[in-house]
Amino acid sequence: MGSETTVVLVHGAFADAASWGPVTERLLAAGHRVVAPPVFNRSLSEDAAYIRSFVEQIEGPVLLAGHSYGGAVITVAGVADNVVGLVFVSGYVLEVGESLGQLQGGFPDSDLAANLVYAPYPIAGGEPGTDVSVDIDAFPEVFAAGLDKTKARVLAVSQRPLSAVAFGEAATAAAWKTKPGWGIVSSADRTINPEVERFGYQRAGLRSVVEIDAPHLVMQTNPDEVAAVITGALAELG
């Protein structure tokens, strides 16, 4: 594949790789190499191990971009040797030994907390797990605010749940300690308290942080601005 930097777009919980669609279109149109793999949302360790393996099979440097829970995933997976930078989009930036629940617990709850639904799912040879999803009726306003109502309803019924264990699992690595990073805060976010994003970015000492007056799915509502941050990071990396 050569030495050109590949942009790997990592989606978050309650969404899939299509959530990056408008940004993917813009990056491809600009001539960048882009891939948007699935995240299975089973546990932080499993998801990070999968993304790391995916990245390590790419020849040449990789810029990882993670949205929401995907930020936690790239925090761990980003220690792969060929990862040269990290872009956090409305994302969680964890410290080693810290979980999503611990990071969120230091700030007032967002609107998401009161609109979660819990359901069992089978695990071969073990006790059932618990899937967490967003209430379908609340999804358009809490998770997909700012989107066309019809599209938001479609996303609501096709969301990818997150296993409950992911909330309590501690990060085993923090790639931002050794890799340069960039961040986007969605200041109108109702899914993650924007203060969680700001705190994580500041603690990580990211090279730059952009505040966008946008909801959680900023890649859908403001794709030009998100793509600009990613292309700016590529330019800085050379």
Automatic annotation (TrEMBL):
Protein name listed in UniProt: Pimeloyl-ACP methyl ester carboxylesterase
SUPFAM superfamilies registered for this protein in UniProt: alpha/beta-Hydrolases (SSF53474)
Start and end residues of each AB hydrolase-1 domain: 7-229
Source taxon at top rank: Bacteria
GO molecular function: catalytic activity
Gene3D superfamilies attached to this UniProt entry: alpha/beta hydrolase (3.40.50.1820)
InterPro entries (UniProt xref): AB_hydrolase_1 (IPR000073), AB_hydrolase_fold (IPR029058), Sec-Metab_Biosynth_Hydrolase (IPR052897)
